[in-house]
Amino acid sequence: MGKALENGSLHLPPDQFLPGTTQLAPCVILGDEAFPLKRYLMRPFPGSQVDDPANKQFNYRLDFARRIVENTFGILSQKFRIYNRRMQANPENADYIILATFVLHNFIKIYDGFSFTATDPPSSIVNSELQYIPLQGGNATEEAFQVRNVFKNYFLLPQSQLIN
C-alpha cells in the first residue's frame, strides 16, 4: 500500500475543496509521530514547533480525528472479527471490505436494535500482538509541508468566514 501511495497508483480521490472554502486539498491519511510527513499522510508538528498556537491547534484537530477513526475501528472490531487480525485481501479490495462492514453495522444498528456504547477499543484489541511497522524514513517534501499548512490554516478559520 505504501508503494502504491508513493507512486500514485492507489487511485485516491482527486483534490477537493475544503468545506466552505475555495481551497483545494488532497485526501490524506491521518498518522502520528511515527510516520513521515507526505502529501498523502498528515502527521503532527513535532514538539519543537508546538509553541506556535496554530501548530498546537493543528495537532489537536489531527489527534481528535485520529481518535475518532481509532474508536470507529474499535467498535467495528467488536462486531466484525475480521478487524482483529491482518486482512488477507489485495489493497484494491480492502476498501470494499471496510465499506461492507460499515453498511452491515448501520443495518444491524437500525433494524436489530444493536448499539455500541464503547468509545474505546476493548482491552483484547489493545493488548493483542501488533505487527511491527518499521519507521518510514524520508525527508518531507516542500509539497508535504504546504499540504499540512493548508489544513492548519483551514483549522484556524472562524466559522463565520467559511463560504457556504
Q: Please give the domain count.
A: 1
Figure out the total of helices: 5
Question: Globular, elongated, flat, extended or rod-shaped: what is the shape?
Answer: globular
Given the helix and strand composition, which structural class is it? mainly alpha
Q: Please report the distance between the alpha carbons of the first and last residues.
A: 35 Å
The largest beta-sheet arranges its strands as 1-2
Average pLDDT taken over every residue = 79
Outline the secondary-structure elements.
Elements lengths: L1 H6 L8 E2 L6 E2 L3 E2 L10 E2 L10 H27 L11 H21 L11 H4 L15 H15 L8
Parallel strand pairs: 3-4
Antiparallel strand pairs: 1-2
Helix pairs in contact: 2-5
Structure description:
This protein has 164 residues and is mainly α. The chain has one domain. Helices cover 45% and strands 5% of the residues. The chain has five helices and four strands. Strands 1-2 form a two-stranded antiparallel ribbon. It has a two-stranded parallel sheet with strand order 3-4. A hairpin with a 6-residue loop joins strand 1 and strand 2. The longest helix has 27 residues. About 12% of the residues have low confidence.
Task: Give a quick precis of the structure.
With 164 residues, the protein is mainly α.
Descriptive keywords:
single chain, 164 residues, mainly alpha, two-stranded antiparallel sheet, two-stranded parallel ribbon
